[in-house]
Amino acid sequence: MADDLDRLFERLVRVLAEDTPGRLAVPFPACEVYERLVPYRSNRSILRVATRQDYEMAVLRLLSGERGYASLEPGDIREALRREAGESNADTGLFRQFPDAILSLNRIAAERFLRGDGAYAPPPPSLPLDSPQAGEVVEQPGEMEVDATEQCPYCGETLPAGRKVNFCPQCGQPPSGELRCPACGGEVDVGWRYCVSCGRATGFE
């Protein structure tokens, strides 16, 4: 079920997509999220947030990189926001101290929301019915032979030409097929740092 973070990201993606073609791929100052693109006053009913604090918490979570929806630079600011978001009594407006930090959206997550595929967030922690059982052979992400112009759909970097490519050498993501946890073989999504099935680090950061 979608929560405040999902709704904020979806609203941000739709506003940017309607703004200018290609706008989703262009990094922008973090302050644009809460000052111009999805401000609280004109979006609180769409986001279904009860209070300004709930709205600010959603922004804090987005800017901290939760669920891999976005990445904030510099990294030390992102980490500071991530730590604050994890506090039981978080300063939800901390992000306002870093208006010039640069935000980049996860293009795959953005496209999923635009297609109406639903939340990009992890599913409930129970194992899906088709998860590999003990002793089963886990299929690896789809191999593909690429030419010199093929680009990684996640980071946009050029993939090595004339060879089988299981993972992008720049970002570690598979160029095609389902992304699987290297520890248990459970299906994971791009941007997930930990597997929802076994809790092990995916290594696909």
Structure description:
- α4 packs across α5.
- This protein has 205 residues and is α+β, with helices and mostly antiparallel strands.
- The protein has 6 helices and 7 strands, in the order αβαααβαβαββββ.
- About 12% of the residues have low confidence.
- It has 2 domains: 112 residues, no CATH class; 70 residues, no CATH class.
- It has a 3-stranded antiparallel beta sheet.
- It is globular.
- Helices cover 31% and strands 9% of the residues.
Outline of the structure:
This protein is α+β, with helices and mostly antiparallel strands. The chain has helices at about 5-20, 30-35, 40-45, 50-65, 75-85, 105-115; strands spanning about 30, 70-75, 100-105, 145, 165, 180, 185-190. The protein has a three-stranded antiparallel beta sheet. Strands 4-5 form a two-stranded antiparallel ribbon. Strands 6-7 form a two-stranded antiparallel sheet.
Notable characteristics:
205 residues; three-stranded antiparallel sheet; 2 domains; 6 helices; single chain; alpha+beta
Please provide the count of β strands: 7
- Bulk shape: globular
- What is the strand content? 5-15%
Query: Can you count the helices?
Result: 6
| Count of folded domains | 2
Average pLDDT number: 79
